[in-house]
Amino acid sequence: MSSTTCTIRPATEADLPAVVAAYAEHSAHERTHTAYTVFQEGVYPTERDARAALQEGALHVALLGDTLAGSIICNEREPGEYASVPWPARERRPEARALVLHLLMVRPCMAGRGMGTALVRYACELARGRGLDVVRLDTGMQNLPARHLYQKLGFAVICGGCMKIGGVLEHKDHLFLERELSDLS
Questions:
Q1: 19 Cβ neighbours under 8 A, 6+ residues apart
Q2: Threshold 0.70, pTM exceeds
Q3: ∠ CA 8-12-14 to the nearest 5 degrees?
Q4: What is the pLDDT of residues 40-95, one digit of tens each?
Q5: DSSP for 51-104?
Q6: Is the four-CA dihedral 133, 120, 173, 19 of positive or negative sign?
Q7: Burial classification of residue 145, based on how many CB atoms lie within 10 Å of its CB (0-12 exposed, 13-18 middle, 19 or more buried)
Q8: Residue ranges of domains in the chain
Q9: Running DSSP on this structure, what letter comes out for residue 135?
Q10: Which of 142, 146, 141 is nearest to 120 (CA)?
């Protein structure tokens, strides 16, 4: 996806240092401002998480010019907690296939420029291009900016529950959201 201000594309090895630096920038920002995530520097997210996503072709980056503005991980791997979520698309059509969004990260210095919106829209188009039926994600109940973004983009909150974020951080107040692609506008 390209526009006059933003380019979003699959990440390359050359992008990895900037993605990891963005994770550190985010952690530093949350130490001195309101913390909306429960991420822990050195625990999650880490270079290992970004590298694993890069190697599976799931890491995507948003650039303003040559500057990293944000990143997102998109794959079809649902965390174990998703099995107990009463996903409407799955209940209507058990064969429905989903793209799962993980670790949407917009650099704090890029906030307010539409990068989160652009990354989520890109992911929805990526899912549609792959012939998938739905996009799913999870976020913390306390993450008001993310909740607002996802609901603005048509994601419905399905339920709340516990989640082991990144497979390592326990969080009891988590929300599970879904957007069917048939209503993508």
A1: 11, 50, 59, 61, 68, 71, 105
A2: yes
A3: 110
A4: 788 889 999 999 999 999 999 999 999 999 999 999 999 999 999 999 999 999 99
A5: HHHHHTT-EEEEEETTEEEEEEEEES---GGGGGS--HHHHH-TT--EEEEEEE
A6: positive
A7: middle
A8: 7-183
A9: E
A10: 146
Bridging pattern class, strands 67-75 and 156-165: unpaired
For the stretch 128-176, pLDDT in tens is 999 999 999 999 999 999 999 999 999 999 999 988 878 777 788 899 9
Q: For 9, list phi and psi in degrees, rounded to 5.
A: -155, 165
Closest to 177 measured CA to CA, from 106, 78, 108, 69: 78
Q: Is the peptide bond before 108 cis (omega within 30 degrees of 0)?
A: no
Residue pair 125/165 in contact (Cβ under 8 Å)? The answer is no
Tell me which residue has tokens 């209503």.
Answer: 183
For residue 48, the one-letter residue type is R
Rounded to whole angstroms, the Cα distance separating 97 from 23 reads 29
Give SS3 for 123.
helix
Q: Does domain 7-183 have CATH number 3.40.630.30?
A: yes
How far, rounded to the nearest angstrom, does the alpha carbon of residue 38 sit from its chain's CA centroid?
A: 14
